């Protein structure tokens, strides 16, 4: 059974997701293009190293004259195990490039989360989100001295899916109960007893007036 709250949550999640996709799509395209380009170039370099490494080594030994200096035994030993050397070079190159690529991606994601949300997008969210989702967005956006960022919208979507609104309502109810419990209760002052004892038979003592 779909309740009104469930329908509102689905609508809010859809609206927040579309907003994030619209704002983050240019950066996603750039990251994808850079990643594919770097991987393609890395694959080309690795294949070139493994395929031409032996020829490069033979050419270098011939040009430098090390063939005559080292002797046939040493040269045969080097040529026998030279493929492991090129595999090591290729592995080090892969590790170096992938490490740099991951660092760049992490920095790009961090810059994307810190990107400011345009005022027009905030107006669309304020007009389309339910009151519960706006309450969660207000809770996420704690530093009101800084504009709303894409990271705030992402956090709002995550918190909305995890039921943050129910937790906020429970916290407010608990806070109200605690404030009521801490409020001092006003008590009615007791009436001071009369110093004059009552007369016998239930009659009061005569006074100067009567």
Which helices and strands appear, and what pairs or packs with what?
Layout: H1 4-64, H2 66-70, H3 72-113, H4 119-128, H5 131-140, H6 150-161, H7 164-182
Describe the fold and architecture.
By secondary structure, this protein is an all-alpha fold. It contains seven helices and no strands. Helix 1 runs antiparallel to helix 3, helix 1 packs across helix 6 and helix 5 crosses helix 6. The longest helix is centred in the first third of the chain and has 61 residues. The termini are far apart.
Q: Unreliable runs, pLDDT <50, ≥5 residues?
A: none
- Which descriptor suits the 3D outline? elongated
Percentage of residues assigned to helices: over 70%
**Strand tally, please?**
0
Mean pLDDT across the residues is 82
Q: Measure the end-to-end span.
A: 82 Å
Question: Beta fraction of the residues?
Answer: under 5%
What composes the largest sheet?
A: none
Instruction: Please tally the helical runs, counting DSSP H or I stretches of 4 or more residues.
Output: 7
Q: Label the structural class.
A: mainly alpha
N-to-C SSE string, H for helix and E for strand: HHHHHHH
Rg estimate, integer Å: 40 Å
Notable traits:
elongated, 0% strand, mainly alpha, single chain, 210 residues
Quick summary of this structure?
With 210 residues, the chain is mainly alpha-helical.
């Amino acid at each position: 059974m779909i309740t009104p709250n469930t329908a509102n949550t689905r609508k809010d999640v859809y609206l927040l997701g579309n907003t994030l996709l619209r704002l983050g799509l240019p950066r996603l395209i750039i990251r994808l293009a850079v990643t594919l380009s770097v991987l393609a170039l890395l694959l080309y370099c690795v294949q070139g190293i493994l395929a031409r490494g032996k020829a490069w080594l033979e050419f270098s030994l011939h040009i430098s004259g090390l063939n005559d200096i080292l002797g046939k035994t040493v040269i045969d030993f080097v040529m026998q195990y030279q493929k492991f050397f090129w595999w090591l070079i290729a592995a080090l190159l892969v590790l170096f490039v992938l490490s740099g690529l991951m660092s760049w991606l992490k920095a790009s994601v961090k810059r994307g989360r810190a990107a400011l949300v345009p005022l027009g997008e905030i107006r669309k969210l304020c007009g389309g989100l339910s009151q519960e989702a706006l309450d969660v967005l207000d809770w996420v956006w704690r530093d009101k001295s800084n504009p709303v960022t894409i990271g705030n919208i992402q956090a709002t979507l995550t918190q909305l899916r995890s039921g943050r609104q129910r937790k906020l309502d429970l916290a407010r109810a608990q806070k109200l109960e605690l404030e009521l419990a801490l409020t001092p209760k006003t008590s009615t002052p007791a009436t001071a007893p009369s110093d004059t004892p009552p007369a016998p038979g239930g009659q009061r003592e005569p006074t100067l007036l009567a």
